[in-house]
Design brief:
The structure is a homodimer of 192-residue chains. Chain A is 78% helix and 0% strand. By secondary structure, the first copy, chain A, is mostly helical. Chain A folds into 2 domains: 1-47, Arc Repressor Mutant, subunit A (Orthogonal Bundle), CATH 1.10.10.60; 57-190, Tetracycline Repressor, domain 2 (Orthogonal Bundle), CATH 1.10.357. In chain A, helix 1 packs across helix 2 (28-35) and helix 4 (49-71) packs across helix 6 (97-112). The A-B interface holds A 22-24, 50, 101, 104-105, 108-109, 111-112, 146-147, 149-150, 152-154, 156-162, 165, 168, 170-173, 177-178, 181-182, 185, 188-189 and B 22-24, 50, 101, 104-105, 108-109, 111-112, 146-147, 149-150, 152-154, 156-162, 165, 168, 170-173, 177-178, 181-182, 185, 188-189. The structure holds a DNA duplex (30 and 30 nucleotides). Chains A, B: Residues 27-46 bind DNA.
DNA sequence: TTTAATTCTAGAAAAATATTCTATTTGTGA
DNA sequence: TCACAAATAGAATATTTTTCTAGAATTAAA
């Protein structure tokens, strides 16, 4: 296996800087110092600061999507599917707080930027993947008939909200305790 | 009534620029041009760019809190309270999309900045106000006993999630149609 | 293995942006 | 009217981002 490419080491350094100082406060120079790359190298690989953000964003969402799809192996039934959607989100954010903070913080910014379309395409595909997974349960009448966007909001909204507060250090209830509550509530509100 | 002060006109111009070009892309110069103020005046009133954001953020949250407290006049019973929390959020965001986009986009940034404590204090007070309003219903046993942070996430999480997507133009279901669905779901998941 | 082409790296130079500073003007109370 | 503070202006400075030119490393073809 090839060791981390220069490109990757720049991304890694960028995430570390963002976590440490916040996205707005980190300068190209800080990323240069931390990664050991030169300005020229940095701009060769990414072109500008915004595209560093975008690349990092895509890498993060892909990591999360992969995590979810791995967890999906053990899904067995509609309730288990809902529980996995909620639980995987909690687990991944819990295990990767720096990534998660970055993704939550920069979503709007990256979507508004030039890579917005790419990103939206990515997300749409992930969404469709979930749709395919739930199709069967829907056809069996196990899930409420709701506009798709409302369904999604009901299912994952509370969890996203909770984890956003957790990342900001605004909540005390330990994750292990919330997990079943949130999973159960999601199921309650989404089942027929 | 005094007409808009220079300070206010700067804030107004800033919000307009942010809505039009995004927060990251607007420069001090753009705000200067749009507001008609000079650089000196701008820095006299706010000190730096970050503090313009913070002031705008505080103004926005205050507007929303006021809106909610007005709507609270008509609350009558626990279900009505839940419905008002959800409905007011939808209404305010629907009527003030620029404000809402800005608030959602910048929360993390402002909280991480020097005004973070002030802001957190503000939010805590608002949160406590809601707590006081719900206390009675809680004592009557009408609301589920849950860790407070989980309760909040269940109540408002789906709505916040939905409105975030609405602001980004990612959903089609009209707000009038979602409103009762979200309110009803919130009540379902939060009532005893 | 040499050559040519391409990719990558480097850092100085330029451009864009944010902030400070000094001077003037405006308003306000004694 | 005078003294003083608050507000405004824009030039000067500092910081940060981006571009540009040149050289080093790598790859592929001959």
């Amino acid at each position: 296996m090839p060791r981390a490419s220069r490109k990757d080491s720049i991304l890694e350094a960028a995430l570390a800087c963002f976590s440490e100082h916040g996205v707005e406060a980190t300068t190209i120079e800080m990323i240069r110092d931390r990664s050991g790359a030169s300005i020229g190298s940095l701009y060769h690989h990414f072109g500008n600061k915004e595209r560093i953000l975008a690349a990092l964003y895509v890498a993060g969402t892909e990591a999360y999507h992969g995590f979810l799809q791995d967890a999906w192996q053990h899904v067995d039934g509609a309730q288990s599917a809902v529980e996995t959607l909620v639980g995987s989100y909690i687990d991944w954010v819990g295990q990767n707080p720096d990534w998660a903070r970055f993704l939550l913080h920069c979503r709007g910014r990256v979507e508004a930027g030039e890579q917005g379309d790419t990103l939206r395409q990515h997300n749409r595909e992930h969404f469709l993947w979930i749709e395919r997974q739930l199709k069967m349960y829907r056809e069996q009448g196990l899930l409420r008939e709701l506009p798709r966007d409302v369904f999604t909001a009901l299912l994952i909204g509370p969890t996203q909200d909770y984890m956003r507060h957790w990342l900001a250090g605004r909540v005390q209830t330990p994750l292990e305790q919330c997990r079943p509550l949130l999973a159960q509530a999601a199921w309650m509100v989404v089942k027929t």
